[in-house]
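On clarity, I found the account of how folds are encoded harder to follow than it need be. Since the whole study asks how a given chain folds, the encoding of that fold should be made plain. For the editor and my fellow referees, an illustration may be useful. An entry of this sort, consisting of the sequence and the corresponding C-alpha cells, reads as follows:

:::
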Amino acid sequence: MERTQCVICGHGTLSTLVSYPNFPANALATNQPPEADILINFTIAACEQCGCAQLRHLVDPSVLYTDEYTVVGFSPSWKTHHDVFAKFVKTNLSTPRILEIGGNAGALMARLPDVEYSVLDMFRHKDMPSSVTFVQGNCESFDYTGHPAVVLSHVYEHLYRPREFVAALKAGGVQDVFLAIPNFEAELNDSQIHVLNTQHTYYCDLEQIRYLFALRGYAMNAYHSHEDRAVPTHMIHFKYVGCPAIPLPVIQVADKIVSLHGNYAETIKDAKDDVFVSPAGMIGQMLWYCAKARGKLIRGFIDNSADKHGKRLYGTGCISYLPSSVTALSEVFVCPCKYASEITLALSAYTAIHIHGDPNAR
C-alpha cells in the first residue's frame, strides 16, 4: 500500500527524506515465531507543496492492529491523560450518545459512565463490557449516520486517509468530534525518533488538523493543551457550523526529521557487540535496526514494562528482560529518549557499565 498524494493537501509529489528497507512493521512484544514478522520499506517523505512529512508505504491495518495489539497497560501518565480527556469531553458534550473509534481497551468509556456508548474498532477486546455496543470495522470506510458525536483518543494520527475520514463524518451528519492527538511539534523539538512510525503515519499538528476539519465546515469549539512530559497532547473539540475553509498551512519539518534520524543512527557507533539495549518498543527497535546495519550484535532489551518481559520484540530476535536481569559486567546501551536519565539511574543498582546515545544523560 503506497501513498501517492499528500494526506493534508492532496498534492501528488512527495520527496523521500529517510528510508529503511526491510524494517519491522510493528513494535509489539510477541510470542510469535520470527518467521511470522512482516518487514516493510519504512520511508518518510515530505509533500513538496505543504511540507507535511508522512509515510510513503503503509501496512495493511488488519495486520497492524491485530487482537494482540489490544493487549495494553496504562502508565500513571496515561491514566492522568484519560482522566483529563474524559473531563474535556464531558464538559463540551451536547448529546448523551458517543461513538468512540479505537476505544477497545475501555480506558475512556469507564470514565464516562453516564453516556450511551458505542465503540468502532477492528477487534473486540476480551474485557469490553457486554453493555457497550461494539461495531467491528474500519473507521475510514464507515457510515456515520446516526452518530451525533465521535471521539478519537490517539487514533487520528493513525489514519491513512484523514481527508476522506473527515468527509465521511460530514456525510454522516456528525455534529461533534473530540480528538486527543500527540503534540507533534513538541515531540519533534524534543528529538523523539518515533514522532513518525509505522502507526503514526503522518505529521499532523494543530494547524494541519484545523485545516482538514475546516474543509468540511467544522470549527474548533474548545481546546486544551495537556502539558505532560510523557504524553504531550492536543485535546480538541470540533463542531460542525458550516464554516469556510482556512488557508493551507505550510510547515518546515523536513530538515529536522533528516537530522534527527541521522543523529540517531550515529549513536550506536560507540557500542560494543553483545550489549543490552534499553528501553524496548519503537525506540529500542530503531536502535536495533541501526546496530544491525553496522554489523553490531544486540544481546537483548531491558525494559521496565512487565507486559514485555520474556517476549520477543517484533522484527528482532531479541527478548526483553527485567532491569534486574543484568549483572555488574553487563553493558547496557541507553537509547536517546526523554527518560534516558531515569533509565540510567534505575540500572545503576545492577551495573555501572552504560553507554548513552543522549549526551545529556551521561
Q: What stands out?
A: Helices lie at 61-64, 76-92, 162-171, 184-189, 206-214, 254-266, 281-293, 340-347. The chain is about 20% helix and 25% strand. The radius of gyration is 21 Å. The domain at 68-240 is CATH 3.40.50.150 (Rossmann fold).
